[in-house]
Amino acid sequence: MNNRSMSNTYEYGDAEYWDARYCEQAGSSFDWYQRFSALRPFINKFISSCSKILMVGCGNARISEEMVKDGYVDIMNIDISSIVIEMMRKRCMHIPQLKYMQMDVRDMSFFEDESFDSVIDKGTLDSLMCSTDASFSAFLMIEEVNRLLKPGGIYMLITYGDPSVRIPHLNQPGCCWKITLYIIPRAGFESVVGSSSSLRSVMEPVPLTEEGLLAPEYVLEDPDSHYIYICKKMED
Ligand SMILES: C[S@@+](CC[C@H](N)C(=O)[O-])C[C@H]1O[C@@H](n2cnc3c(N)ncnc32)[C@H](O)[C@@H]1O
């Protein structure tokens, strides 16, 4: 899945769309954008294995199960699709570290303020950004994520959205983040030997300008790269 195939598609914001999709995919799993193996160094670096984690828009991805195998002990998974939540509950009933609840990220009032150390979002803000009321939905979701995080907590956003289209939403009123950006090529992308991106480690943060944009000289070799925003919740 890349930027172009996800953009201009209002269905991604609809619960009905996801229910129908997950009915078709019964019994299977699909990890959007990146698998755990590619994300593991970032998750291990920023999220401690004993932390309380909220996986928003979990879908039927394997990432939470892989995290448990890697030592993570407390992951609450939510999704707007009751179909996928029921499937995942059955699939993971033998894994006590994983809990599943049907919930809309725009209203997570079930949880008290500052209930989580970390929130992981792989493709869910992106889905909301494809809905007809994209900006308002994104506003509600980010407000909720901010409310649920403890001070110093981490919102890890994995997205196809570059800083010009994601930082303005992240920096909405009421939120105070320290944002560090990483960029990883899509799975299977081979960079040209000797190019600037082949020489750069994906674990090197990508500098942002004061306006929160990529520096003009930054070369994005794979146009379908994914962006990992590490947003640390700061005291106001
Ligand atoms: C692009 S998929 C990503 C699934 C999974 N995170 C992954 O990485 O493979 C987006 C997920 O967000 C869920 N979703 C969409 N809108 C939502 C909302 N308002 N609240 C909760 N989940 C939502 C969808 O049901 C879907 O499972």
From TrEMBL:
Residue ranges of every copy of the Methyltransferase type domain listed in the record: 54-156
Keyword set includes Metal-binding: no
Keyword annotations: Methyltransferase, Transferase
One GO term (biological process): methylation
Highest rank taxon of the organism: Eukaryota
Glycosyltransferase among keywords: no
GO MF term list: S-adenosylmethionine-dependent methyltransferase activity
Pfam families: Methyltransf_11 (PF08241)
Family of this protein: Belongs to the methyltransferase superfamily.
Official protein name in the record: Methyltransferase type 11 domain-containing protein
UniProt organism field: Dendrobium nobile
Lineage, broadest ranks: Eukaryota, Viridiplantae, Streptophyta, Embryophyta, Tracheophyta
